[in-house]
Specification:
Blueprint (H helix, E strand, L loop, with lengths): L3 E4 L9 H16 L3 E6 L9 H14 L8 E2 L4 H13 L3 E4 L3 H8 L9 E2 L2 E2 L18 E4 L1 H7 L4 E6 L2 E6 H7 L4 E3 L7 H12 L3 E5 L3 H14 L5 E5 L19 H7 L3 H7 L3
Parallel strand pairs: 1-2, 2-3, 11-12
Antiparallel strand pairs: 4-7, 5-6, 7-10, 8-9
The structure holds glutamic acid and zinc ion.
The site of glutamic acid has 7 residues, from loops.
């Protein structure tokens, strides 16, 4: 089988060792199967994405020997696709608009009768203050949340599961509700959240295999659920261990000393980088 794989960095900073690891693993898996490898810019958050970072990332990837097929997709140009997906969910009554601020959510989740607030892959589990059965047209420039319970019921989903490296990962419907809850799929100033945009992009590009860091394993439950709700196929997921520093501490995304660009200035070679990340 020819794999269709992708690397989808957010151009909000330099490419660092952890990103390079994901990109090199996915690139070599795609090439080993004589398949496709795509580069996409996860630049949906225009308040943080910068064109300069996108260019620097491409330059660093080329330097590392990563080549990609076809044009680079930019999420910024794909809002219309995300809105169509949202409208399909809205038409099924699975979305509602939420006007809560972060502080509101924290306060509601911290209410004494609630116990300690639970944190899921999308932040504090939403306490449901705005949950309702909306009618009429989908509002524009509003935060839209997925009604988790209703979605699972409508599609008669009893659990979400996936397996990788002989290990099975499962969440029952009750666990999806309690540990993930009503995730945000669209924001006031962003057509789509990370979860919705990445699921649409993977489906539209026909991605068959995803390799990414294990910090995203919990988010995979959300992605598979969205694929079921939207009728998209589910790629095969593999989550690699995160790159750690000499003390075993996970590299911070913002640790610019580990930026590939910084190593290049120091005179390191692409081979040095591969060795540093154990490839
Ligand atoms: N832009 C995301 C990141 O850098 C991509 C995650 C993914 O591959 O799904 O973490
Ligand atoms: Zn709300």
């Amino acid at each position: 089988m020819k794999f269709k794989m992708r690397f989808a960095p957010s151009p909000t900073g330099p490419l660092h060792l952890g990103h390079a690891y994901s990109a090199l693993l996915a690139h070599s898996a795609a090439r080993a199967s004589a398949g496709q490898f795509y580069l996409r810019m996860d630049d949906i958050d225009q308040s943080r994405a910068r064109a300069e970072w996108a260019l620097q990332i491409q330059d660093d990837l080329r330097w590392l020997g990563v080549t990609w097929d076809g044009p680079i997709w930019s999420q910024h140009a794909r809002s219309a696709h995300y809105i169509l997906a949202l409208e399909r969910l809205w038409a099924k009554g699975l979305l509602y608009s939420c006007t809560c601020t972060r502080a509101d959510i924290k306060a509601a989740a911290n209410a004494p009768q609630e116990g300690a607030p639970l944190i899921g892959p999308d932040g504090v589990i939403y306490p449901g203050s705005c949950r309702c059965d909306p009618e009429g047209v989908m509002p524009k420039h509003a935060a839209l949340r997925l009604n988790m319970k209703k979605s699972l019921q409508l599609f008669d989903i009893k659990h979400i599961s996936f397996s990788e490296s002989n290990q099975n990962y499962t969440k029952t419907a009750l666990e999806m509700i309690a540990q993930i809850g009503d995730v945000v799929l669209s924001r006031k100033d962003m057509a789509a959240s990370y979860h919705l945009s990445i699921v649409c992009d993977d489906a539209d590009q026909g991605i068959t295999h995803v390799i990414r860091g294990e910090d995203l394993r919990e988010a995979t439950f959300i992605h598979i659920l969205l694929q079921r709700l939207l009728g998209y196929p589910t790629p095969k997921y593999r989550h690699h261990p995160l790159i750690r520093d000499e003390n075993g501490k996970r590299l911070a995304k913002r640790d610019d000393a580990r930026a590939i660009a910084a190593y290049r200035i120091e005179g390191r070679t692409p081979l040095d980088i591969r060795q540093m990340i154990g490839l």
